[in-house]
DNA sequence: ATAATATAGTTGGACATCAAACTAATGTCA
DNA sequence: TGACATTAGTTTGATGTCCAACTATATTAT
């Protein structure tokens, strides 16, 4: 909830959005811990998410996809590499480029991530009709595109 | 967008929420910079927000209000104190307690914050009817309460 | 009243994050 | 071809954040 630069009305949008994000992160962290996965934080989710769908990504691609600075990606990749979840190798053609791939250990997390996602969604949408889910996503998409 | 521990559907809620929060933060930061306020970050907004409305708060109250760890509040208060925006004093009755107040310099920011809030809201809600604004806030409130 | 417990806040360590400065490799252009 | 510019990624330094351990003060229970 770091968005308190807001008046009464803004509080009902941006502060809500911030609070939900914080709570979702905490939920994900709890779920990971409950599965004995103690070395991964929500911030790493983006890296895994995109590597599950792309067998190979460069640092720059990853930075763009998770919308983080390239220096942030350097440190995330170092962390996850040190833990054995991903590996990096220099591109043979363009030697400036670093390619990132999941290791076997990394790929094993996919099922856990999917399950946690399902639980997160279930929790978030308690009491929602299909129509309401659709509406909230549509409205949030419009807010997102307004920036 | 640190919530990529998600499948296709979740992406449409939690990732959206994360993306919006990030963008709102960036917007606020830009607006602050544009006013020549370069030493304040979005994370400080919560402290100001609550101090505009409460002339005096303890560290613990602040921590609860902005939903951050008390040690985080220690460092935020140190930062803002060093910049001259707030001041702390020990409570005479219960000497464990620290009271936080805005300085004159801190109070001067209120108008800027209010203006930034208005602009942020205007931007977020471009194209929204009053009814849609009401709906999105209601639905988000329900999601928030589901956690 | 004294010992045990609880509470307020700080400290230390880890890490995510960004911006700015940097290095290394590639590309361009005269 | 050689100088300049661009691009990929790393390094450095600052800050926000949490947790766990700690200090100091206050409260409670025996």
Automatic annotation (TrEMBL), chains A, B:
It comes from the Bacteria. Keywords: DNA-binding, Transcription, Transcription regulation. InterPro entries: HTH_MarR-typ, WH-like_DNA-bd_sf, WH_DNA-bd_sf. Residues 10-145 form the HTH marR-type domain. GO terms for molecular function: DNA binding; DNA-binding transcription factor activity. This is Winged helix-turn-helix transcriptional regulator. It comes from Candidatus Desulfacyla euxinica. The lineage of its organism: Bacteria, Deltaproteobacteria, Candidatus Desulfacyla.
